[in-house]
């Protein structure tokens, strides 16, 4: 390892204050908002009276460096790790995607966005948080997307697994696709959200469940392309965050094959091949994948963004420089620039990088 | 297009006689075996009293050139299309994977293997059919795998979606993994089998469902690697047929990341990284994918096999030469040789190709 490699991260997380919703919402809603309890060496997440997740405290704490909650410490971590700008997703706020009450979902999202704009994003133009919108009511989502744009957000987070009965190929979503395209807001789908990521038990379960989180991300792309949503809105850009990037050419080929070979069953017809739509409008992020560079260099798919996933265990903190050197030493500089910042700059307004 | 490109197909299908099981089994079993009825412009498949599938007759008939059922016509098609050796999967026999009665499953598989060895494989050494084993009872599967080897089969077909309650990471399967490794029989998992491939409705449904068939194939690899099955049996080779090949590097990276970053939860530990196991023991086949050549050339994954999927609509018949030229014109000859036959020759004994 020699020089510091500076990169911007397309996938990171902020840990919100636990009492965010208690401070912002009336008690009747606040008591149903995400909440955690620590006992018996376990941390349990409750949402609207339901247990969402239970982890060993050691696991939860391993993902909470001071910078997870404290934005000043965070910016020091970024400088030390060599991360310039950061797309920042929620942490506790992700549980909003698991709610089943539309009012609770709408109000929790609204409170999160207000908190984030005032107390987090305001700290630095290097932070590019996603806004949260309710996925339970598309009119609510459209309304909050407009408000989020006013608040300065450049993109909106959505769960990779949509609410039951609302698959992303359903026409019900059309107003949100149209509003996002019109507002120039990217839609950022983060893997592992909207449904429990734990589906397998038994030998290999941890790795199996880790892989399972990628499949709903593949489905999001498939549904938004096959249904014609991305074709009808050529300016709409979507992101599948944290699921890797090198599966995209395989999915594009698969969709082209189905579209062409099963022509007699295909509705709607598209104005472009699925692969053309995907390669142009679908962005992805990865952390460690050795397949990322050849995907850009040899497979012709360049909407590829590196992400630190700070501060999660799946991510690169505190070893970001080691990972970046393993990924990029000896690689063509144009490809490095593309993956570490150029792709992200297509999606978002980023501050100019201060020369290192 | 100029010269004829000769290729061997790692994925094709034979259409068995409709009355195969009526001829071979006692009436009480035969009447529950796969059967089709044509009426109202629909072809309906029944298995054990249940409707398995209903297709327009035009769709069913489009996949039935004379060579689908008549092996002499088939060999003429192969010569004309430029296909040398052929891995051949069942058609009606695939429904055995959807049965829930162990005796019916075992006896239908046995009858299929007897028919195939006597009436199909005997026609030419260029035909490499998979044997069928019941997936409902592992002892039955082990026993039939041994019998299949005696009958001359070189591999065994299994469904990508296992029976309910029997995920492929379960220890219940260990005797089959051990027996296949010991016998040198590859295990060939064919996409779209073992569960209905139709899961989505509405806009884009045909393409969405076509993509969905690939996910259980990804799961097979994940389960057999994460559970340690392929690590315990380094001579065991598995094939995921018809699902493409370029998703493998993405899956390998994802599994390595989960295995390393979630170390505290990972059981069992493996003697090699998941990616090493996958790149060495997992074989895949594709038909049209433009991503196949760069996967071999730039991503370091070379267990890649082309397949015609004869006589299916997803396949290349009757345009095989056009597809092969689109895939391979201008490509390094060593890569062409690898994809069109070399990989398959690692798995199977193939007859030497007669110079064209």
TrEMBL record, chains A, B:
Keyword Transmembrane helix: no
GO BP terms, alphabetized: secondary metabolic process
Keywords associated with the record: Lyase
Superkingdom in the source lineage: Bacteria
Alphabetized Gene3D superfamilies for the sequence: Metal-dependent hydrolases (3.20.20.140)
Pfam families per record: Amidohydro_2 (PF04909)
InterPro entries from the UniProt entry: ACMSD, Amidohydro-rel, Metal_Hydrolase
One Gene Ontology term of the molecular function aspect: carboxy-lyase activity
Protein name as it appears in the record: Amidohydrolase-related domain-containing protein
Organism: Frankia alni (strain DSM 45986 / CECT 9034 / ACN14a)
Lineage summary: Bacteria, Bacillati, Actinomycetota, Actinomycetes, Frankiales
């Amino acid at each position: 390892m020699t020089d510091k490699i500076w990169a911007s991260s397309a996938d990171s997380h902020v840990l919100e204050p636990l009492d965010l919703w208690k401070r912002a919402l009336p008690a009747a809603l606040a008591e149903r908002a995400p909440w955690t309890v620590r006992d018996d060496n376990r941390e349990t997440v409750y949402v609207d009276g339901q247990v969402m997740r239970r982890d060993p405290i050691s696991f939860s704490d391993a993902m909470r460096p001071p910078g997870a909650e404290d934005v000043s410490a965070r910016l020091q971590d970024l400088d030390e790790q060599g991360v310039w700008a950061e797309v920042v997703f929620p942490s506790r706020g992700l549980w909003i995607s698991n709610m089943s009450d539309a009012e609770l979902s709408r109000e929790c999202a609204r409170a999160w966005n207000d908190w984030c704009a005032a107390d987090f994003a305001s700290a630095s133009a290097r932070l590019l948080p996603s806004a949260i919108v309710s996925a339970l009511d598309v009119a609510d989502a459209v309304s909050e997307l407009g408000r989020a744009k006013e608040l300065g957000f450049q993109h909106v987070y959505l769960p990779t697994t949509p609410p039951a009965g609302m698959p992303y190929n359903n026409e019900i979503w059309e107003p949100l696709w149209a509003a996002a395209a019109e507002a120039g807001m990217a839609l950022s789908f983060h893997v592992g959200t909207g449904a429990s990521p734990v589906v397998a038990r038994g030998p290999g379960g941890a790795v199996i469940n880790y892989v399972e989180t990628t499949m709903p991300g593949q489905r999001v792309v498939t549904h938004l392309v096959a249904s014609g949503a991305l074709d009808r809105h050529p300016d709409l850009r979507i992101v599948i965050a944290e699921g890797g990037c090198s599966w995209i050419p395989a999915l594009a080929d698969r969709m082209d094959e189905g579209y062409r070979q099963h022509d007699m069953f295909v509705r709607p017809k598209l104005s472009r091949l699925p692969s053309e739509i995907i390669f142009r409008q679908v962005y992805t992020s990865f952390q460690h994948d050795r397949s990322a560079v050849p995907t850009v260099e040899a497979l012709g798919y360049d909407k590829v963004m590196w992400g630190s996933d700070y501060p999660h265990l799946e991510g690169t903190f505190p070893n970001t420089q080691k990972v970046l050197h393993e990924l990029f030493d000896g690689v063509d500089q144009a490809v490095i620039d593309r993956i570490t910042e150029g792709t992200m700059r297509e999606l978002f307004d980023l501050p100019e990088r201060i020369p290192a």
